[in-house]
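HUMAN: Now follow token order:
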Amino acid sequence: MNKRKGILEELRQNKSENSKYKLLAITMQRYYKIYDMDCGTNFCDIFTALYLEKTEVTYDEIALRFGVSIPTLSRYIKQFNVLAEKLLNKINI
């Protein structure tokens, strides 16, 4: 699957924005952990696999690990990037 760069991936690869990325990623991880407890989803685990694990994994590996299809994973990634943009704009991380 082709990786289109969203705001999270751009921040992750930009070394000068490393502290901003870490703060944003940890904030989002906490949000999704609470969301998962409330709604019974696994967004936190998927978000962590995509953006916080040290090893690079492909979308196919993540989809297989969490039992979601590639189109579903693509929608999740889009949702993650929308939330990241909102957080960056609203609370100015």
User: Anything to note?
Assistant: The longest helix spans residues 18-39. The chain is about 70% helix and 0% strand.
